[in-house]
């Protein structure tokens, strides 16, 4: 569950049961991500300061190839925004289970794609590596290639 105590709403997901938006005294509604391609310049979530110092400058320079990138500095709210379709992609070099497991489940149940930069599936037991999430498989491939060029 990705709960927002200020708005008193949440996004919840269960494996194989989809992703749902809920609010007190309202019927929950299912959240499907759009798989339609948007403009070629993507909007994403990434925080250059989270990368090792040697990679921060290349990551910052990579940002200019996208329409816009943002960082809310809170994985819960970043995944909430991803699930609701506000962003095309998400990149994080800090795969801490408490920051990502619930958000990744919700994103995948909504129809999003998530892999590690190495191409492996995300596992909650992963302690190192870079997570890449994207609205479509083609966006995932593009972002993976962009980051492989500077990180691997």
Please give the largest β-sheet: 5 strands, mixed
Net shape: globular
> On the 0-100 scale, what is the average pLDDT?
93
CATH topology assignment: D-Maltodextrin-Binding Protein, domain 2
Low-pLDDT stretches are none
Number of strands: 9
List the domain count as a whole number.
Answer: 1
Compute the separation of the termini in Å.
33 Å
CATH class type? Alpha Beta
Class per helix and strand makeup: alpha+beta
Give the percentage of residues in beta strands. Answer: 15-25%
* Helix percent band: 25-40%
Describe the 3D structure.
The chain has one domain: D-Maltodextrin-Binding Protein, domain 2, CATH 3.40.190. It is built from four helices and nine strands, in the order E-E-E-E-E-H-E-H-E-H-E-E-H. The chain has helices at residues 53-63, 75-83, 97-110, 137-151; strands at 2-4, 9-14, 18-22, 29-30, 43-45, 68-70, 89-92, 113-116, 131-134. The strands form two sheets. A five-stranded mixed β-sheet has the order 6-5-7-9-8, sandwiched between helices. A four-stranded antiparallel β-sheet has the order 1-2-3-4, covered by helices on one side. Strand 5 (43-45), helix 1 and strand 6 form a beta-alpha-beta unit.
């Amino acid at each position: 569950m990705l709960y927002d105590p200020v708005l008193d709403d949440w996004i919840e997901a269960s494996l194989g049961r989809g992703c749902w938006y809920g609010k007190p005294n309202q019927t929950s509604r299912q959240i499907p991500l759009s798989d339609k391609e948007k403009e070629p310049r993507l909007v994403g979530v990434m925080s250059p300061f989270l990368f090792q110092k040697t990679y921060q400058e290349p990551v910052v320079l990579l940002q200019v190839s996208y329409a816009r990138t943002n960082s809310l500095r809170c994985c819960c709210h970043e995944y909430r925004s991803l699930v609701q379709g506000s962003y095309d992609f998400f990149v994080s070099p800090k795969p801490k289970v408490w920051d990502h497991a619930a958000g990744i489940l919700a994103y995948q149940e909504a129809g999003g794609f998530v892999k590690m930069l190495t191409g492996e599936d995300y596992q909650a037991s992963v302690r190192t590596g870079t997570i890449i999430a994207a609205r479509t498989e083609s966006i995932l491939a593009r972002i993976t290639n962009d980051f492989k060029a500077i990180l691997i």
